[in-house]
Write a structure and sequence with these properties.
The structure is a single chain. By secondary structure, the chain is an alpha+beta fold. The chain folds into two domains: about 1-35, no CATH class; about 45-160, no CATH class. The chain has helices at about 5-20, 50-60, 65-70, 75-80; strands at about 105, 110-115, 115-120, 120-130, 135, 140-145, 150-160. Strands 1, 2, 3, 4, 5, 6 and 7 form a seven-stranded antiparallel beta sheet that branches.
């Protein structure tokens, strides 16, 4: 998809470069304005809480198979251990009596971890989309367009009534 926006990205970089001070930094590249450029491995950081929620739900057999199949398990394992979270889905310094309570919205072709609704927008640290789907919430419905098999970090979708 980012190749389809190459034209507007090139025009945007030309505009920015024509108005920049050459003494202050490097010129902009068209790729700086790609919205759909795939993230590189070093850019993707999954929160430890979302990773723990994923593993707790996977261990409990609560996640759809398609979600587990497309999950970036290596990144999730790295995120889980990056903040020295204990085994079994416990927060650092927590005990067995204080487990993480994973929050997840699961709908048709859609899984959103730890969603929060702010001003009609649902934001989540980790999400999986298999096909266009929707999740009913107390504040409305989250409808997602056809995105294909993707997982996303720090995503957001609009909530419609």
């Amino acid at each position: 998809m980012h190749l389809q926006e190459l034209g507007i990205a090139t025009l945007t970089s030309c505009f920015v470069n024509s108005n920049r001070d050459p003494k202050k930094g490097e010129p902009a590249k068209p790729s700086d304005f790609f919205y759909f450029t795939p993230a590189t491995d070093k850019d993707t950081k999954i929160s430890a809480a979302a990773a723990n929620a994923f593993f707790a739900l996977a261990d409990a057999g609560k996640l759809p198979g398609w979600c587990v199949a497309q999950a970036p398990v290596d990144k999730l394992l790295k995120a889980k251990t990056s903040e020295q979270c204990g085994l079994g889905g416990f927060r650092r310094g927590a005990t067995a009596e204080d487990p993480i309570k994973p929050l997840v919205w699961i709908g048709e072709g859609l899984v959103l971890f730890q969603p929060r609704v702010e001003d009609g927008v649902v934001r989540f640290p980790l999400g999986f989309v298999d096909t266009s789907g929707e999740v009913e919430t107390s504040g409305g419905v989250v409808r997602v367009p056809e995105l294909g098999n993707v997982w996303m970090i720090d995503g957001e979708f609009a909530v419609s009534s």
